[in-house]
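Researcher: Please translate sequence to structure tokens.
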Amino acid sequence: MLRTCALALSLCAAATLNWSSPAHAAPAAKAPAEQRLGHLTIRSVGSGPAVVLIPGLGSSTAVYDDLAAKIGGKHRLIFVQVNGFAGTPAAPSTDNLIPGAVDELAGWLKANKVDRPAVVGHSMGGLMGIMLASKHPAAVGKLMVVDALPFYGMLFGPSTTPASVRPVVEQMRDAMVSGTVPLNPPPHMSNTEAGRAKVAEWLKASERKTVGEALVEDATTDVRPDLPKLANIPVTIVYAVSSAERKAMTDGLYREAYKALPKATLMGLPDSDHFVMLDQPAAFTAAVQTFLK
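Model: Translation complete:
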């Protein structure tokens, strides 16, 4: 699991400053097909029970294309793109990026009368999903967190805190923004050449300042104290298991991370790296379909 978390690998690389960087149905009648907000651009496609899809750090909503093609006919898909990621125009300010984006999404859902949708978030998008559910309960009916921990510092030991992580990722951000490190993805994002190429393309097209600020916020946010607030909604945690040798360690890490949600469903997807939806698209779609039932 250590190798499958994009953010964790970024933190490790930061120590040496060597971060090597659907078919569209008609939009729902009462919502704009696409709306640009401050930190987000939100696109609504199709009709039926709503599913909110949030990609991760530096990623495009295209990461869900395969899933969308499978479930789009029976669901209204709400794609949430962070502005500045994957070639999209950046917001004027990156201050308070993740909490601001979460509040914007909650406001959009309320304004468009989307009540308690299913929410799927990958990596940083998983963190956003947890924050959305804990701060805006009416905005989430059920939640799937994909290969994301409630605090990435857990990977570095029980004594790690947001304060101890902050200097490392701020150094990484500064180097990234100044251009002294390439904006390339860390290794082990995908176990396929095509998947690695997609991840690299999205990250290299992202705006450096936005990625840097998002990295700092993502790494220094610990939502473990908020997990009990999710006790009354169905929660599924899907995570990558890169090899049979790592299964026991990865399972244990996720059990510990989400022990405040004893009713949550934990599901490891074998033979995949961080982008499980690219490495195991059929298994990921099946997991989402089970989640939606």
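Researcher: Any highlights?
Model: DSSP finds ten helices and eight strands in the chain.
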